[in-house]
Known about the structure:
The protein is an all-alpha fold. The chain is built from 15 helices and two strands. It has helices at about 1-45, 60-65, 70-100, 110-115, 125-135, 140-145, 160-170, 175-185, 190-200, 205-210, 210-215, 215-230, 235-245, 260-270, 275-300; strands at about 45-50, 55. α3 crosses α14 (about 260-270), α5 (about 125-135) crosses α13 and α14 runs antiparallel to α15. The radius of gyration is 25 Å and the shape is flat.
Amino acid sequence: MEKTKKKSLKRKLRREMSGLLFAAPWLIGFIAFSMVPIILSMYYSLCSYNLFTEPVFVGLVNYKSLFSDRLFWKSVYNTLIFTLMFVPMQILLSICVAALLNFNIKGQWFFRTVFYVPSILPVVAATILWRWIYNYEYGLVNNLLNMLHLPSVLWMQDPQWTKPALTIMGLWGSGNVFIIFLAAMKDVPQMYYDASRIDGANSWQRFKYIPLPSITNVIFYQIVMGIIAALQYFTQAYILMSGYLANTPTGPEDSMLFYGMQIFYKAFYFFDMGGASAMAWLLFVVAAVITSLLFKTSAKWVVYGGEGD
Length: 309
């Protein structure tokens, strides 16, 4: 008996060692490129550090200085406004497009491709394209407005229009969200639709009471991911402004200074790694709080598969 126990223990150890050996490349990469930087950023947020000298521990000075920084609050305001504009519109538009393309119509594959392709285009190339589209003098959007006898809009020069412009650009590239909603709707059994038709339900009633409640878990997932992504918004605004208005990289009246951009400028323009690290950790705390609140409210409206059985 003892020999068999020893053999079984040896086999278990061999399996565990083999598993760890295969997982070692990922574990080493995670520790070296994720865990260590996370720990160092926490330490640097409590230090005065500019990349060229040794970090000096200063406690919560970096955090206190942020709350008296006008640009910090401007970046917070811009990011929150953009998040409140973009995330609900993205969810609503993606659900509507998915519901429309869920019908069996001719050329369905073509329309699905048209809506999805923008999401796989390179971000830099797509942003440069939108820079031309938003041009005041010969841009496509203003030409269409003029054709409708509407005034042209200073999309990139008017601070009131910069965030709506970025929202429209983001909605154009929301094909990945739409395709997830469409896949979730396709997962709803056809017999539910057939039963609703027999009961005399119209198209709106069928959508409201069959696919919409069935995809609430997917909607919840997309809301969480959309908020986290919007809070980190950086690339499109940075490319658009750095090439379009080189003398105002944060947009007119700092209207395109997002939180992620402010972190970037603090770290790599002003070499304030301590302040940038403090901003990054504040962003993590805010995102964690918002996510936890969403999870608490999800019990009231999110339905997971099998809960109603």
